[in-house]
C-alpha cells in the first residue's frame, strides 16, 4: 500500500484545498489551488478529478457543447496545461505527470495548400486545430507534450519528456522526440516486450 508521507503543512494545505474543492467542484476528489480554468462551461470534469498545484485548463473560443472531457478518476501532477479549441477527451483512470502540455491547437498551418509564412506575426495566424483522444488507463510521464490530432490507446505509457506527434496504439510504452513505440505488452506472457 502506498503512503503519501505528507508533512504537517501539506496536510493543512490539503484540508483547505479539499474544503474549497467540495465547494467549487463537488464531483472532484481534490483540486490543489491555485488553478486557472478558462471556459469552465465547456468542460466536463467527470468524477474524482485530482490536480496538482498551478494547473491551467483553457477552452478557447465559443462552443455549443462541452468540448473538453475528463472522465473518471484522473490524477494530474503540478503545472499541467491543457489547451482546447476543438475537442480533447481524457479517458478514465488516467495518470498525468507534472509539467505536461496537452494542446489541440497551434498558431498557423504549415502543410497542405494554404500555409502560413514567417512574415506574418505568429499571434496573427489563424489557429489550426485537431481533436485529441487519450484513452482509459493511460500514464503520461513527467514533461510530456501531446500535440494536436493525436490519440493515445488504452493502457499505454508515454515516457517522461516525450513529444507525442502521432497516434500511439493501445498497450505500448512509447518515448522520445517524436514518441516511438519502445515496448509492447504481450498478453500471453503477461510482460512488456522490447520492439
TrEMBL record:
Gene3D superfamilies: Hexapeptide repeat proteins. GO terms for molecular function: transferase activity. Coiled coil: none annotated. InterPro entries: Hexapep (IPR001451), Hexapep_transf_CS (IPR018357), Hexapeptide_acetyltransf (IPR051159), Trimer_LpxA-like_sf (IPR011004). CDD domains: LbH_MAT_like. Pfam families: Hexapep. Signal peptide: none annotated. It comes from the Bacteria. Keywords: Repeat, Transferase. This is Acetyltransferase (Isoleucine patch superfamily). It comes from Facklamia miroungae.
